[in-house]
């Protein structure tokens, strides 16, 4: 009698937990979410990368002006990615979007000109030393490896 009383007491106050315990069903536990910032010069492939990760059509991809936010779902987590436009007049505002980031994706066009590669190096250096980013994990993605002018990892 005591055990059935306890069972009813639990089911009365915690019906969802009771249901899950009895049926082993219910929604899966929520996936953790991580906030990332994605930066790189215009044309480096940030928008294409995120569209591919979100299983969106590669048609009609337009360079980001300003910023965009995408939720990239994975089996065990969701990445909320703030993609920041890479145009010259927008890069000076990147740091305004760093707050709350838990990681950084820096996309580099490995087939770009020497001048653009130097600009990208300077922007990466600046991000690596920014107080809000310097302790975060960085992923540096050398994109456009399929192009004939692409540099090797050692060259990048």
Automatic annotation (TrEMBL):
Family the entry assigns: Belongs to the small GTPase superfamily. Arf family.
Binding site for Mg(2+): 47, 64
Species of provenance: Ceuthmochares aereus
Keywords annotated in UniProt: GTP-binding, Magnesium, Metal-binding, Nucleotide-binding, Signal
Residues making up the signal peptide according to the UniProt record: 1-21
SMART domains to which the protein is assigned, alphabetical: ARF
GO MF, any single term: GTPase activity
Protein name per the record: ADP-ribosylation factor-like protein 15
Binding-site residues, GTP: 40-47, 86, 143-146
Lineage: Eukaryota, Metazoa, Chordata, Craniata, Vertebrata
């Amino acid at each position: 009698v005591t055990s059935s009383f306890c069972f009813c007491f639990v089911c009365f106050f915690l019906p969802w937990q009771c249901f899950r315990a009895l049926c082993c069903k219910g929604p899966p536990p929520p996936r953790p979410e991580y906030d990332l910032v994605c930066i790189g010069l215009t044309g480096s492939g940030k928008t294409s990368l995120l569209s591919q990760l979100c299983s969106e059509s590669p048609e009609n991809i337009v360079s980001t002006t300003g910023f965009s936010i995408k939720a990239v779902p994975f089996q065990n987590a969701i990445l909320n990615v703030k993609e920041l436009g890479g145009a010259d007049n927008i890069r000076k505002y990147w740091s305004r979007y760093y707050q709350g980031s838990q990681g950084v994706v820096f996309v580099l066009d490995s087939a770009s000109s020497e001048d653009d590669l130097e600009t990208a190096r300077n922007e990466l250096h600046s991000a690596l030393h920014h107080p809000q980013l310097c302790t975060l994990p960085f992923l540096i993605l050398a994109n456009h490896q399929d192009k004939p002018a692409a540099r090797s990892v050692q060259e990048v």
